[in-house]
Amino acid sequence: MDEDVDVDEEVDVDEAVRTKTRANALKYPVTKARGPARTSTEFD
After folding, report:
1. What Å distances lie between residue 2 and 11, 12, 14, CA to CA?
2. Can you tell me the distance from the alpha carbon of 38 to that of 44, in angstroms, rounded to the nearest whole number?
3. What pLDDT score does 28 carry?
4. Distance, CA of 28 to CA of 36 (rounded, Å)
């Protein structure tokens, strides 16, 4: 770890991944996001 970084709290990586996965599931539902690459604003 870089000595210049001051970390006050430890990150719960498992919880961070679960939170991000839930957010992505809402933003990019499989029924709309699967297939060609598009931005989330292009979903019907």
Report:
1. 16, 19, 22
2. 11
3. 84
4. 13
